[in-house]
């Protein structure tokens, strides 16, 4: 079964700047993020929660691991 990449995952990848950086921030392997991106694995629900939180917070209030990414 193939799952579509969620809009939330796309937003987080944009915030992170790269798929590799996103994997590091989320504590996942690059391979696992790749499986989610390509639809081989479903997007975990917590990805939606993180994306919603990041959308609401101004960059100066982002957790430290995201602040290295830069401004959106």
Q: Which bin fits the share of residues in helices?
A: 55-70%
Order of helices and strands: HHHHH
> What's the story with the biggest beta sheet?
none
* Percent of residues in β-strands: under 5%
Note down, in words, how this protein is organized:
This protein is mostly helical and 72 residues long. The protein has one domain. The protein is 58% helix and 0% strand. The protein has helices at residues 7-16, 19-26, 30-37, 45-56, 64-67. α1 packs across α2. The protein is globular.
What distinguishing features does this structure have?
72 residues, mainly alpha, 5 helices
Q: How are the secondary structure elements laid out?
A:
Elements: H1 7-16, H2 19-26, H3 30-37, H4 45-56, H5 64-67
Task: Give a nutshell description of this structure.
With 72 residues, this protein is an all-alpha fold.
